[in-house]
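Handover notes (outgoing to incoming on-call)

Open items:
1. Outer membrane protein OmpW: sequence verified, structure written out, both below. Nothing else pending on this one.
2. Nothing else urgent.
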Amino acid sequence: MKKQILTLVITAALSVGAVNANEAGDWVIRAGATNVDPDNGNSGVFVDALGGDTPLSLSVEDDTQLGLNFAYFFSSNWAVELLAATPFNHDVIINDSTGIAPGIFGVPVDGATLAEVQHLPPTLSVLYYFTTNGSFQPYLGLGLNYTTFFEEKFKSDPDALGFNDLELDDSWGYSAQVGLDFYFTDNWLVNASARYIDIESDASFKIGEIPGSSSVEIDPMVYSLMLGYKF
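Outer membrane protein OmpW structure tokens:
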């Protein structure tokens, strides 16, 4: 679905015409599915008592929630948009490509679900709508994201091994997006968008009383498919 949404948005965004149906003072409210798909790169794990670097790394799974956004047009081509959503819940996977970790913890850990975290990523963006002469209204956007993490907790097995006190710092970063509104009536529309969000967080935890940390680069692609209404 992610590739189909991205292909639809990019293809339509290249179809630029001559007339824009948007007007200054218009509001658009949208709601629908939003998927946060973190970067597949792994973040290193550091434990002071083990000399700092370890063979372990962390990766974050994707999640889909109800997305909401609100756009206000201050001219026919320019709008400001706020992205909101219900809390995203992500599994944090621990990776060990070397196979050394069982000698440290006594059990295999590669691919195990280490923890889960929730976050909210409100994003405020400025959008530029291309002038078109039809129902398709493609746009580009740049914005600022604030991501707050909460409900960080280790799963039962890692908890039994002594993992505790997991915390992730909140994050500020930029976002960039491409999107499309398709009007099937004068006021109702379907929206598809794909955006990149710069999200990085410093994670801290303990193994027993031994401190550990990781610099987690989430940097997700965020895909949305929504129903909207303009008034």
